[in-house]
Specification:
Glutamine Phosphoribosylpyrophosphate, subunit 1, domain 1; four-stranded antiparallel sheet; 7 helices; globular; binds aspartic acid
Length: 287
């Protein structure tokens, strides 16, 4: 029943990059699957997969994170555990290699759910979480055509105990206001998990995702019995219809069924479970 699904964002990217991001997702899913296959916990699988994606310079999280309007880098991340609905999130934090570690620290060591700004990173230092120079995260400038890409990263897993965990990490949107926080660290928007229904991690323009609370809408659809594949397609289409623009989402329901849907041209995704693995840059019809 255990499974992990990951994404590396949704949008339009140059064709030569599509295979590489799908492969990065496959690698991250395999890293997370190693944890689950060894009887490990969903939280460790999701964090391992997101950390892997944060290290991938092709994607907009950790290394490779995009710059704001001032040319600075600030990061958002969230982690939620569906057993007790516990969650930790950080918004607009200064550069660090693994924002998901800081979100996990908030979840496990803080009475709060969301910490924002430089103070969040300052707080994390007592647990050995350190910032890094922005240049450690910068990679050679993207081609202008990549501006329509939303290459946030995320993972959702369920383990043998039926615990559902979702995690998301991002640099936000290119050229964002320096004080902006996106959907990724907001529960119910970019990230949500509930053992009684399933989990979700979203990508796309955060300002649109927030307005339809996409992750929570997907989880509630699974709660009502909709197959995650149908829910992911329907609710990303719905977002497009209601507020315009595109988004993508990955889902796992409480039965371990997977969903991937996007109303953008493409979305990089991968899943891994006992009976096999798959990855791609678009969700094939009939999948
Ligand atoms: N959802 C992210 C944000 O708005 C962007 C992305 O998905 O790439 O911060």
């Amino acid at each position: 029943m255990s499974v992990i699904v990951v994404h590396g964002g949704a949008g339009d990217i140059k064709s030569h990059k599509r295979e590489a991001v799908a492969r990065a997702c496959a690698e991250a899913a395999a890293v997370g699957w190693q944890v689950l296959a060894g009887g490990g916990r969903a939280i460790d699988a999701v964090v391992a997969a997101v950390r892997w994606l944060e290290d991938c310079p092709l994607l907009n999280a950790g290394r490779g994170a995009c710059a704001d309007a001032n040319g600075d880098i600030t990061l958002d991340a969230a982690l939620m555990v569906g057993r007790d609905l516990s969650a930790g999130a950080v918004g607009n934090v200064p550069p660090l290699r693994h924002p998901i570690d800081l979100a996990r620290a908030v979840l496990e060591r803080s009475p709060h759910v969301l910490l924002v700004g430089p103070g969040a990173l300052e707080w994390g230092r007592q647990f050995g979480i350190e910032g890094c120079p922005a240049d450690d995260l910068r990679v050679p400038a993207d081609e202008p055509a990549e501006e329509k890409a939303h290459d946030t990263v995320g993972a959702v897993a369920i383990d043998d105990e039926g615990v559902v965990v979702a995690g998301t990490s991002t640099g936000g949107v290119r050229g964002k206001h320096p004080a902006r926080v996106g959907d990724s660290p907001l529960l119910g928007c970019g990230t949500y998990a509930d053992d009684e229904a399933g989990g979700a991690s979203a990508t796309g323009t955060g300002e649109l995702i927030m307005r339809v609370t996409l992750a929570r809408a997907c989880v509630d659809a699974m709660r009502a019995g909709e197959h995650p594949m149908d829910a992911a397609r329907r609710l990303t289409d719905d977002l497009h219809r209601r507020v315009g623009g595109g988004a993508g989402v990955i889902l796992v329901d409480r039965h371990g069924r997977v969903g991937v849907g996007h109303s953008t041209l493409g979305m990089s995704w991968a899943w891994h479970r006992a009976d096999g693995a798959a990855c791609g840059w678009q969700v094939p019809a009939g999948e």
